[in-house]
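tool_call predict_complex ligand=adenosine-5'-diphosphate
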Amino acid sequence: MTAQPESARFLIVGPQGSGKGTQGVVVAQAFGVPAVSTGDVFRANIAGDTELGKQVKSIVEAGDLVPDELTSALVRDRLEQADAAPGFLLDGYPRNLGQVADLDAFLVSRSEALDAVIELSVPREESIARLRKRAVDQGRSDDTEEVIENRLAIYEKETAPILGVYRERGLVLEIDGLGTLDEVTARIFAALAERGLVPAAAPAE
Ligand code: ADP
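tool_result ok
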Protein backbone atom coordinates (compact mmCIF):
# COMPACT_ATOMS: atom_id res chain seq x y z
CA MET A 1 0.00 0.00 0.00
CA THR A 2 1.18 3.47 -0.84
CA ALA A 3 0.36 6.33 1.49
CA GLN A 4 -2.14 8.77 0.04
CA PRO A 5 -2.10 12.48 -0.59
CA GLU A 6 -5.18 14.02 1.07
CA SER A 7 -7.34 12.95 -1.82
CA ALA A 8 -6.93 11.98 -5.43
CA ARG A 9 -10.19 12.45 -7.29
CA PHE A 10 -9.51 12.70 -10.96
CA LEU A 11 -11.28 12.66 -14.28
CA ILE A 12 -9.56 11.90 -17.54
CA VAL A 13 -11.27 13.31 -20.61
CA GLY A 14 -10.30 13.02 -24.24
CA PRO A 15 -11.59 11.88 -27.58
CA GLN A 16 -11.73 8.25 -28.58
CA GLY A 17 -8.23 7.02 -29.30
CA SER A 18 -6.59 9.69 -27.12
CA GLY A 19 -5.07 7.02 -24.89
CA LYS A 20 -7.09 8.03 -21.85
CA GLY A 21 -7.78 4.44 -20.81
CA THR A 22 -4.10 3.54 -20.73
CA GLN A 23 -2.98 6.76 -19.07
CA GLY A 24 -5.85 6.64 -16.61
CA VAL A 25 -4.74 3.26 -15.29
CA VAL A 26 -1.15 4.47 -14.85
CA VAL A 27 -2.22 7.57 -12.93
CA ALA A 28 -4.71 5.67 -10.76
CA GLN A 29 -2.17 3.02 -9.85
CA ALA A 30 0.41 5.62 -8.90
CA PHE A 31 -2.06 7.30 -6.55
CA GLY A 32 -3.39 4.00 -5.23
CA VAL A 33 -6.97 4.66 -6.30
CA PRO A 34 -9.26 2.63 -8.59
CA ALA A 35 -9.52 3.53 -12.27
CA VAL A 36 -13.16 3.29 -13.24
CA SER A 37 -13.93 3.11 -16.95
CA THR A 38 -17.63 3.13 -17.73
CA GLY A 39 -16.86 1.75 -21.20
CA ASP A 40 -15.02 -1.21 -19.63
CA VAL A 41 -17.90 -1.85 -17.24
CA PHE A 42 -20.39 -1.85 -20.10
CA ARG A 43 -18.19 -4.10 -22.27
CA ALA A 44 -17.66 -6.59 -19.43
CA ASN A 45 -21.42 -6.76 -18.85
CA ILE A 46 -22.10 -7.24 -22.55
CA ALA A 47 -19.49 -10.00 -22.72
CA GLY A 48 -20.99 -11.67 -19.63
CA ASP A 49 -24.51 -11.28 -21.01
CA THR A 50 -25.76 -9.81 -17.72
CA GLU A 51 -29.05 -7.90 -17.34
CA LEU A 52 -27.14 -4.62 -17.65
CA GLY A 53 -25.28 -6.01 -20.66
CA LYS A 54 -28.54 -6.89 -22.39
CA GLN A 55 -29.89 -3.41 -21.70
CA VAL A 56 -26.92 -1.55 -23.16
CA LYS A 57 -25.62 -3.85 -25.94
CA SER A 58 -27.33 -2.25 -28.92
CA ILE A 59 -26.59 1.27 -27.61
CA VAL A 60 -22.88 0.64 -27.12
CA GLU A 61 -22.56 -1.15 -30.44
CA ALA A 62 -24.09 1.85 -32.21
CA GLY A 63 -21.67 4.17 -30.40
CA ASP A 64 -24.54 6.05 -28.75
CA LEU A 65 -24.63 7.12 -25.11
CA VAL A 66 -26.21 4.87 -22.52
CA PRO A 67 -28.95 6.84 -20.68
CA ASP A 68 -27.62 9.11 -17.93
CA GLU A 69 -29.73 7.58 -15.16
CA LEU A 70 -28.34 4.15 -15.77
CA THR A 71 -24.74 5.32 -16.19
CA SER A 72 -24.78 7.67 -13.21
CA ALA A 73 -26.33 5.04 -10.92
CA LEU A 74 -23.63 2.60 -11.94
CA VAL A 75 -20.87 5.11 -11.22
CA ARG A 76 -22.36 6.05 -7.85
CA ASP A 77 -22.49 2.40 -6.82
CA ARG A 78 -18.87 1.97 -7.79
CA LEU A 79 -17.69 5.11 -6.01
CA GLU A 80 -19.47 4.06 -2.83
CA GLN A 81 -17.21 1.03 -2.52
CA ALA A 82 -14.55 1.26 0.15
CA ASP A 83 -11.56 1.29 -2.19
CA ALA A 84 -12.79 4.56 -3.70
CA ALA A 85 -12.82 6.38 -0.35
CA PRO A 86 -9.37 7.96 -0.83
CA GLY A 87 -10.14 8.77 -4.43
CA PHE A 88 -10.75 7.51 -7.91
CA LEU A 89 -9.97 8.15 -11.53
CA LEU A 90 -12.99 8.20 -13.81
CA ASP A 91 -12.42 7.42 -17.48
CA GLY A 92 -15.33 8.02 -19.82
CA TYR A 93 -17.58 9.63 -17.23
CA PRO A 94 -19.04 12.23 -17.11
CA ARG A 95 -19.65 12.35 -20.82
CA ASN A 96 -22.26 15.12 -21.07
CA LEU A 97 -23.55 18.01 -18.99
CA GLY A 98 -26.29 15.92 -17.37
CA GLN A 99 -23.69 13.51 -16.03
CA VAL A 100 -21.62 16.44 -14.76
CA ALA A 101 -24.65 17.52 -12.72
CA ASP A 102 -25.16 13.96 -11.45
CA LEU A 103 -21.52 13.66 -10.38
CA ASP A 104 -21.62 17.09 -8.72
CA ALA A 105 -24.68 16.08 -6.70
CA PHE A 106 -23.06 12.84 -5.62
CA LEU A 107 -19.80 14.49 -4.57
CA VAL A 108 -21.55 17.33 -2.74
CA SER A 109 -23.64 14.79 -0.83
CA ARG A 110 -20.38 13.30 0.41
CA SER A 111 -18.61 16.64 0.97
CA GLU A 112 -16.07 15.65 -1.63
CA ALA A 113 -14.69 17.49 -4.64
CA LEU A 114 -12.63 16.76 -7.71
CA ASP A 115 -8.92 17.50 -7.54
CA ALA A 116 -8.14 17.65 -11.27
CA VAL A 117 -9.53 17.00 -14.71
CA ILE A 118 -6.91 15.67 -17.09
CA GLU A 119 -7.70 16.71 -20.65
CA LEU A 120 -5.85 14.63 -23.24
CA SER A 121 -5.86 16.37 -26.61
CA VAL A 122 -5.21 14.69 -29.89
CA PRO A 123 -6.20 15.97 -33.33
CA ARG A 124 -9.21 14.31 -34.91
CA GLU A 125 -7.12 12.76 -37.71
CA GLU A 126 -4.86 11.08 -35.17
CA SER A 127 -7.87 9.83 -33.20
CA ILE A 128 -9.34 8.23 -36.29
CA ALA A 129 -6.00 6.67 -37.30
CA ARG A 130 -5.53 5.14 -33.83
CA LEU A 131 -9.07 3.76 -33.74
CA ARG A 132 -8.64 2.19 -37.17
CA LYS A 133 -5.51 0.50 -35.92
CA ARG A 134 -7.28 -0.66 -32.75
CA ALA A 135 -10.10 -2.08 -34.89
CA VAL A 136 -7.55 -4.31 -36.58
CA ASP A 137 -5.65 -5.18 -33.38
CA GLN A 138 -8.56 -5.75 -30.97
CA GLY A 139 -11.63 -6.20 -33.13
CA ARG A 140 -13.83 -4.08 -30.87
CA SER A 141 -17.34 -4.16 -32.31
CA ASP A 142 -17.76 -0.40 -31.93
CA ASP A 143 -14.58 0.39 -33.88
CA THR A 144 -16.19 0.15 -37.31
CA GLU A 145 -15.80 3.16 -39.57
CA GLU A 146 -19.41 4.30 -39.17
CA VAL A 147 -19.55 3.84 -35.41
CA ILE A 148 -16.20 5.63 -34.96
CA GLU A 149 -17.64 8.65 -36.80
CA ASN A 150 -20.69 8.58 -34.55
CA ARG A 151 -18.65 8.35 -31.34
CA LEU A 152 -16.37 11.20 -32.38
CA ALA A 153 -19.36 13.35 -33.35
CA ILE A 154 -20.97 12.67 -29.96
CA TYR A 155 -17.68 13.49 -28.26
CA GLU A 156 -17.48 16.86 -29.99
CA LYS A 157 -21.12 17.73 -29.41
CA GLU A 158 -21.78 16.35 -25.93
CA THR A 159 -18.50 15.67 -24.18
CA ALA A 160 -16.21 18.52 -25.24
CA PRO A 161 -18.57 21.08 -23.58
CA ILE A 162 -18.02 19.53 -20.14
CA LEU A 163 -14.45 20.79 -20.31
CA GLY A 164 -15.76 24.36 -20.39
CA VAL A 165 -17.51 23.78 -17.07
CA TYR A 166 -14.45 22.27 -15.42
CA ARG A 167 -12.17 24.92 -16.96
CA GLU A 168 -14.24 27.62 -15.26
CA ARG A 169 -13.65 25.80 -11.99
CA GLY A 170 -9.92 25.88 -12.63
CA LEU A 171 -9.64 22.09 -12.65
CA VAL A 172 -8.47 21.33 -16.17
CA LEU A 173 -4.91 20.25 -16.94
CA GLU A 174 -4.39 20.40 -20.69
CA ILE A 175 -2.12 17.61 -21.84
CA ASP A 176 -0.81 17.11 -25.36
CA GLY A 177 -1.67 13.50 -26.18
CA LEU A 178 0.76 13.18 -29.09
CA GLY A 179 4.00 11.33 -28.50
CA THR A 180 4.95 8.05 -26.93
CA LEU A 181 2.94 6.65 -24.03
CA ASP A 182 5.80 7.43 -21.65
CA GLU A 183 6.11 11.00 -22.88
CA VAL A 184 2.41 11.58 -22.35
CA THR A 185 2.53 9.94 -18.91
CA ALA A 186 5.41 12.21 -17.92
CA ARG A 187 3.44 15.28 -19.02
CA ILE A 188 0.47 14.22 -16.91
CA PHE A 189 2.55 13.67 -13.77
CA ALA A 190 4.33 16.99 -14.30
CA ALA A 191 1.02 18.84 -14.63
CA LEU A 192 -0.40 17.12 -11.54
CA ALA A 193 2.76 17.92 -9.58
CA GLU A 194 2.36 21.60 -10.47
CA ARG A 195 -0.93 21.40 -8.57
CA GLY A 196 0.75 19.72 -5.65
CA LEU A 197 -0.79 16.39 -6.63
CA VAL A 198 2.07 13.98 -6.18
CA PRO A 199 1.76 10.25 -5.58
CA ALA A 200 3.20 9.10 -2.29
CA ALA A 201 5.55 6.68 -4.03
CA ALA A 202 7.17 7.45 -7.36
CA PRO A 203 5.11 5.94 -10.19
CA ALA A 204 6.34 2.48 -11.14
CA GLU A 205 8.39 2.35 -14.32
P1 ADP B 1 -14.52 5.36 -26.40
O1 ADP B 1 -14.07 6.51 -25.55
O2 ADP B 1 -13.46 4.81 -27.27
O3 ADP B 1 -15.80 5.62 -27.13
P2 ADP B 1 -15.42 3.95 -24.01
O4 ADP B 1 -14.86 2.65 -23.61
O5 ADP B 1 -15.19 5.13 -23.15
O6 ADP B 1 -14.85 4.14 -25.47
O7 ADP B 1 -17.00 3.82 -24.23
C1 ADP B 1 -17.57 2.84 -25.06
C2 ADP B 1 -19.09 3.02 -25.13
O8 ADP B 1 -19.66 2.81 -23.83
C3 ADP B 1 -19.57 4.40 -25.55
O9 ADP B 1 -19.58 4.56 -26.97
C4 ADP B 1 -20.98 4.41 -24.95
O10 ADP B 1 -21.88 3.64 -25.71
C5 ADP B 1 -20.77 3.70 -23.63
N1 ADP B 1 -20.42 4.64 -22.55
C6 ADP B 1 -19.23 4.70 -21.89
N2 ADP B 1 -19.23 5.67 -20.96
C7 ADP B 1 -20.46 6.25 -21.03
C8 ADP B 1 -21.09 7.32 -20.34
N3 ADP B 1 -20.44 8.01 -19.39
N4 ADP B 1 -22.35 7.63 -20.67
C9 ADP B 1 -23.01 6.97 -21.61
N5 ADP B 1 -22.49 5.96 -22.32
C10 ADP B 1 -21.22 5.59 -22.04
